[in-house]
Amino acid sequence: MTHTEIDIDAEFVRDLLRDQHPDLADRPLRLGARGWDNQLWRLGDDLAVRLPWATQDADALLLKEHTWLPVLAPRLPLPVPVPQRLGEPSALFPRPWIVTTWVPGEPADRAPVTRAAEAADALAAFLTALHRPAPEQAPAGRGRGGPLADHSEGFARQLASATELGLIPDPDAVRAVWEDAAAAPEWAGPALWLHGDLHPANVLTADGTLCGVIDFGDLFAGDPACDLFAAWILLPDGARDRFHAAYQPAPDAATLRRARGWAVGRALSGILIGEAGVRGRRGGKATWGPPAHAALRRLIATAHR
């Protein structure tokens, strides 16, 4: 992570608004979150300011959202943050930034799903609506998508790290899930629109079910298995069959195998990030650990059937 050298606080964000969008500058402003790539500042009741701060990639991710989310949002059945204004690089801040709609709800890593059936239906409806053929000019994935086998080296490193920390009780079972997924036939259909980063912190809940999806910076076109992994991490035990029955068109066996591979990789990543949070390390997020451990338990249990 390469945090910006500029000290971003409420008064700085307000100065940016005064400079480029003065009609919004007097709204109440408070910090919403500091993510991997961006800071989020809530602006009044219905808007938010997103500014890049932690990675060099953040500028391109925000511009991607500004370009494509207004096109996709009208067909999606769950609320998503729709860009309303673009902030241009300036003497005050040399990077682009955006003003989006605010999506209410709690991140699922802090408020997990408890109404399994409703959440399975909501996730299936959302992904059915999103997973449509993308145009040729759609963005490519940021290190995601493509054959699972291309990611085997990274998977092995993460598995070794988590095992050395004593976080994986049965590494052979975890490896078997990955190897089966990596051997599955590749996606032969059209490149579909994908969220690309459906981990629990990017999905919002209210009253025990899904109420919104945020952070489309990894939006790209490719294999739907890259999103279908979310059923393993977001939904509680016993909900996946309902999700797979509701998602259309029904995924074939190879797609489900690849989704398991993406899920086991994401679970390992979440376990390591969660452990870093428990240990107080920079970039760690303790709330990521429990859903990742639960997903890995489900994946292994299913493999043993």
Overview of the structural elements:
The chain has 305 residues and is of the alpha+beta class. It is built from ten helices and ten strands. The chain has helices at residues 10-20, 58-72, 116-130, 152-164, 171-182, 225-228, 230-234, 240-246, 253-278, 289-303; strands at 29-34, 38-43, 47-52, 83-87, 97-101, 106-107, 192-194, 203-206, 209-213, 220-222. The strands form three sheets. A five-stranded antiparallel beta sheet has the order 1-2-3-5-4, with helices on both faces.
Concise synopsis of the structure shown:
The protein is 40% helix and 15% strand.
Can you give keywords for this protein?
305 residues; alpha+beta; 5-stranded antiparallel sheet; 10 helices; 10 strands; 15% strand
Topology record:
Elements: H1 10-20, E1 29-34, E2 38-43, E3 47-52, H2 58-72, E4 83-87, E5 97-101, E6 106-107, H3 116-130, H4 152-164, H5 171-182, E7 192-194, E8 203-206, E9 209-213, E10 220-222, H6 225-228, H7 230-234, H8 240-246, H9 253-278, H10 289-303
Antiparallel strand pairs: 1-2, 2-3, 3-5, 4-5, 6-8, 7-10, 8-9
Helix pairs in contact: 3-8, 4-5, 4-9, 5-9, 5-10, 9-10
Strand content: 5-15%
Alpha-beta content class:
alpha+beta
Number of helices: 10
pLDDT averaged residue by residue: 94
CA gyration radius, whole angstroms:
19 Å
Q: Please estimate the helix content.
A: 40-55%
What gross morphology would you assign? globular
Distance linking N and C termini: 40 Å
Strand order in the sheet with the most strands:
1-2-3-5-4
Contiguous runs where pLDDT drops below 50 for at least 5 residues: none
Total strand segments:
10
Biggest beta sheet attributes: 5 strands, antiparallel
Order of helices and strands: HEEEHEEEHHHEEEEHHHHH
